[in-house]
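Narrative progress, year one. The postdoctoral researcher (J.K.) led the effort to move from monomer predictions toward full complexes, under supervision of the PI. The following entry was the first complex the group processed end to end, covering 228 residues in total.
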Amino acid sequence: DSGVTQTPKHLITATGQRVTLRCSPRSGDLSVYWYQQSLDQGLQFLIQYYNGEERAKGNILERFSAQQFPDLHSELNLSSLELGDSALYFCASSVATGLRFGSSGANVLTFGAGSRLTVL
Amino acid sequence: SQQGEEDPQALSIQEGENATMNCSYKTSINNLQWYRQNSGRGLVHLILIRSNEREKHSGRLRVTLDTSKKSSSLLITASRAADTASYFCANSGYALNFGKGTSLLVTP
């Protein structure tokens, strides 16, 4: 157990639907990161939050949104789902500083077990 | 792109052999990290090498970094079947972006 908890583990839904993935970071970690992993695209960075604020944005579609709550858990919302959104979605956390990711040194990520989304 | 690119894409060896995988990146780095992913599981951090280091060891792992060539290598010595996994490098000069990984298969 890495200490990062993701729910649900598996999710099957239909095109056009909306889902919410949830992540609880490891105790003491203030930063949360979301990644999407599919066979053809590899592991894609989506977005990072630090202590409730968005810190970095990657290849996140406009149909996707995320937030980090005061208790530091995070949710990734995926809407108007398409077949191509089927993937493993990972959450990771780190004890990141408030500075831009990496600027103050190392940020080692602890990953959750992932949420497997299947869009039919 | 700030992501690392691993090479080869796939590697198959027998137990006891050494496995070497390479990573290239395009931008300057603060440090470079290597992660392992067992099939369908989350990534696990293996080792971090800072930009002012040239080589680092951790157990059976040896990582080198050549900042002039913007490349790193991960060597796993005396491989075991349990080392079968995908291995990713990540350049943490900015957001941690990963490549597509090297898929390592170690057969008994």
